[in-house]
Amino acid sequence: MAIRYAVDLIDTERAALREIISKNKAKRSTIINAYILLKADRTCGWTNEDIALAYEVSTKKVEQLKKRFVEEGFEAALYRKPVTNVHCRKITGEEEAHLIALCCSPAPDGHATWTLRMLADKMVALAIVDSVSHETIRQTLKKTNLNRGKRKNGVFPQSKTPPLSATWKKSEIFIKNLMIPNVLKYGWMQCLPN
Description:
It is a single chain. The protein is an all-alpha fold. Among the domains are: 11-78; 93-143. Helix content is 57%, strand content 0%. It contains 9 helices and no strands.
């Protein structure tokens, strides 16, 4: 297999890589990249497979690192790329409040409850958001712990039940009657003199 990307390090780059490795203060990925670049140098003569085995990385990582070094330079190959695909939230705090209020409001005529798609359509119709999918609505409601099927989420009034029902009292008395003789017998046996 022909070497597609050849790494030729100059003395200052080699010294910088050895300094990163010796100080051991950089991120793990930077240190691994430094090791790989040192061994990928043409003067060392290591193959991609040897480097991958020595540092427990894939040969693809070695190839990509060499490619990045040749095409983008020393700094780009050594350090990780900055994150460019920053994920923007579709629904922020104010929109979330409108969504919860809408979810707690009475459902439209002909429906018992709001569906996720109806909530998404209503949010767009009220111009709260430009566009939103039902999946985003689901994730937002899940994040807020608002489950429209639960009874204890603040939407439905709580039923007033006594703390102990008659059935529980009856079973409690029954259990006490069964357990008391055994407890007393055990206590009485403990109190006997030797």
